[in-house]
Amino acid sequence: MASRVIMPKLTDSMEEGVVVKWRKAEGDHVESGDALAEIETDKAVMDLEAFASGTLRKILVPEGTTVPSGALIGVIAEPDEDIQALLTKTPSASPKAAAAKRETVKPEASSPEKHAASSPRVRTLAREHGIDLTKIKGSGPGGRIVERDLEPLLPKKAATDRGAGQPSVTEVPLSQMRKAIARLTAQSKGPVPHFYVTIVIDMDAALKMVQESKKQATALTINHLIIGASARALSRHGAINAAFAGDTLRQFSRIDIGIAVALDDGLIVPVLRDCGAKTLAQIGEAEHAMLLRAKRRDLAPEEYTGATFLISNMGMFDVESFSAIILPPAAAALAIGAVREVPVIRKGAMEIGREMKLTLSCDHRVIDGVVAAGFLQSLKHGLEHPAEL
Amino acid sequence: MTLTYREALNQALREEMRRDDKVFLIGEDVAYYQGAFKVSKGFLEEFGERRVVDTPITELGFTGLAIGAAMTGLHPVVEVMTFNFAILAMDQIVNNAAKIRYMSGGQISIPMVIRGPGSAAHQLGAQHSQSLEAWFCHVPGLKVVAPSTPRDAKGLLKSAIRDNNPVIFIEAQLLYPTHGDVENEEYVIPLGVAEVKRTGRDVTVIAYSKMVLVALQAADALAKEGIEVEVIDPRTLRPLDLTTLAASVKKTGKAVIVEEGWPFAGLGAQIAESLYTTVFDHLDAPITRVTGRDVPIPYARNLEDAAIPDVECIIAAVRTVLYKE
Q: Do A120 and B285 touch (CB under 8 A)?
């Protein structure tokens, strides 16, 4: 009795797998339970066991190939059995090299059978508000997700004044900047799975350095030190200076840091190019010039797009800490809180220390927690030992 | 001031005939009988036989005659006793009125209005109860207007008469006695501009001609249970004010289109298609149409009522798009 060998679906999130290695060759006898092949899923490499005994008559997928779960990859049958009928349905193998196997992990959004229908309006709202529709139960016909199912997650609709048609709100037309902010942040917060890591920095040394620099030609600010320390840490942790690009991870060789600058009606993120190659003084000069031009709205589009890493500082507003939204192509954004005087224990005695909280928002498709923590440790070291910058 | 729909039309036509002596009225019983529905009351007295012209029962003939008059620079207003009779004049309307400007390379315009009642009144029978606006809307070269209130009727008829192209102006026998506020001063309402007749955040109901009144009643009833219906009257069916319709549907996410005419290839199908292509991403439910039944309008009153959309039909459609049932 012929038996189909298929790419299994080993986890809920598994859409496809890679045949890493065949443990049996065509013509080999196999017993039910034998390891036929090594399969790499989105999480691990596992053995694929035979569900039937017989001869492995046909291997349909070469090693290193990615195929969708459910695809036929081989046939076990009696040595003289006709297996033609089983073979007519060929798997839709994509001839990707095993080396590219990491790229094949797709976000869950691409499995239609798991998704209940949703109205176009719901999909638009989900995009705008970053709502994960897979977690929502639809109340429409056939389980269709309709607007009312999102209502608990959405801002309340303004009630219309019956008849008179005078809503109690003022409609302010969107500026181009506001439109861009709305579009970019929603495009990010929706699909990009953010996670956040916070670290506390002892700022005594950094503040001392800023103070001393005031006597010199180029005065440094805390921002300059943060940019400089970030650039150093990024050059050490290249995995952070990267982008998710659908099928690949894009690792940037240059460190282009975007700095969020508040304007009256919004914000802009001018980009300081190639921070990895700049000295602290050069970073200070470049940042100062860029800041002035940003406030004058004098920047060309290429000067405020394409940052590979983002920094947003709200310390001047006495914010202890906050989380930033990542703007692709960057995969991480650093949110800076205020420097605060806090009691600290040093060598068994209570002292007044000056501390600052940094929160790194990370795109989990690119960056894992340990990588983020490692980067933050380097950044902390840099800021606490600014002379090394 | 408060006027009936009939009086509003009378005023519009009278004002325009006073304004421009090229404007004249032609049709069956428009002069001595003062119009089958008394729209031209007092006209013969004021303007005389030269400008208020009674015709034999010859729709194709007098429509063609009016087109000829328009080609020579006059501005005819043709009254058809009902639009059911305009079927007889279809060749003149479609092949001449709608084509001559195009086929003469813009040298000859046809500034004319063809007006009269469409849709069912009570027990006029299958041949005299039809809503044929979709026929006219189908033809490039024609503009089509179907006002629902005295104010709209007056302002739009004046604009239709001033337009340099053929305008099909569809009234309704059951609207003639309805009352409404009309400005004392002279005014016009531009063609191609819809009006929000009632604002609401939950559902957009699009209706025209007498279905607007039914839609407003439905909106009143639904308001009692907290459902806010926005009622929009396109007023001009071609060119359609898609901008206003789309803005409303974008807000509410739900649309119901009401028409008295037949469902298949009806005007609501066109409006729905236009909305799907413009606001698809904002729709929370399939657009729902409320139409007349797909049958010749029955003569028996109970069956006639059952064949024409009423308040309950619209309420049911609103519930459907709100997923209430």
A: no
